[in-house]
């Protein structure tokens, strides 16, 4: 009985409660102006941090007009899409990182068909990082919660995503 309670307490501590206040990300420029204006639940893309939009050389796999427009039109944040793919479609691949990541890539491609393969792979890798770092439990209800972002930053998932995509920030508004 004591062991059962300990397991429940450990699980509750690992999952925690959803906290709506997101911590600042070290490299995040803060809220930006969306490409195409951003609307609804879609996070705005900060055009000031994207070299391709500013006329410079792209800094990452998503830093181009086609991918930025696809991200802006996705209907929800790309991290939310990756999380949903991971938990709803790709859960059978838990424990097999490569298959899990590939499944997420395919799932995202089906939902955002205009996104390039290399950009899609950034979000698949980020979700795999979340899973491998045990952040996925903390991110299950809210990918922008303090607990989720703290875990993702500690595991270098957000900095790796920024480097891969070329888009600064944690994909959270505000």
Give a summary of the structure in a few sentences.
With 174 residues, the chain is an all-alpha fold. 52% of the residues lie in helices and 0% in strands.
Strand and helix layout:
Blueprint: H1 2-15, H2 51-54, H3 65-72, H4 78-89, H5 97-111, H6 117-132, H7 136-139, H8 146-154, H9 157-165
Helix pairs in contact: 4-5, 4-6, 5-6, 6-9
Folded structure, characterized:
With 174 residues, this protein is mainly alpha-helical. The chain has one domain (43-165). The chain has helices at residues 2-15, 51-54, 65-72, 78-89, 97-111, 117-132, 136-139, 146-154, 157-165. The longest helix has 16 residues, at 117-132. Residues 1-53 have low confidence and may be disordered.
Search tags:
174 residues; mainly alpha; 9 helices; disordered N terminus
* Poorly predicted residue ranges: 1-53
Please state the overall shape, judged from the principal axes of the Cα atoms. globular
Distance between the termini: 44 Å
Q: What share of residues is helical?
A: 40-55%
Order of helices and strands: HHHHHHHHH
List the total number of helices.
9
- Give the tally of β-strands: 0
What's the domain count? 1
From the alpha carbons, calculate the radius of gyration and give it in angstroms: 16 Å
| Biggest sheet features | none
Computed structural class: mainly alpha
């Amino acid at each position: 009985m004591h062991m059962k309670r300990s397991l429940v307490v450990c699980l509750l501590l690992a999952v925690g409660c959803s906290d709506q206040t997101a911590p600042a990300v070290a490299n995040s420029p803060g809220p930006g102006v969306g490409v195409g204006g951003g609307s609804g639940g879609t996070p705005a893309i900060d055009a000031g941090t994207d070299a391709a939009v500013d006329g410079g050389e792209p800094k990452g796999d998503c830093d181009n007009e086609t991918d930025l427009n696809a991200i802006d039109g996705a209907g929800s944040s790309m991290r939310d899409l990756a999380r949903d793919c991971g938990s709803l479609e790709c859960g059978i691949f838990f424990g097999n990182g490569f298959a899990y990541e590939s499944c997420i890539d395919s799932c995202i491609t089906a939902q955002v068909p205009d996104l390039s393969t290399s950009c899609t792979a950034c979000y698949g890798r980020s979700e795999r990082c979340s899973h491998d770092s045990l952040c996925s439990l903390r991110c299950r209800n809210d990918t922008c919660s303090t607990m989720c972002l703290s875990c993702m930053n500690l595991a270098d998932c957000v900095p790796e995503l920024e480097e891969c995509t070329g888009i600064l920030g944690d994909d959270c508004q505000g």
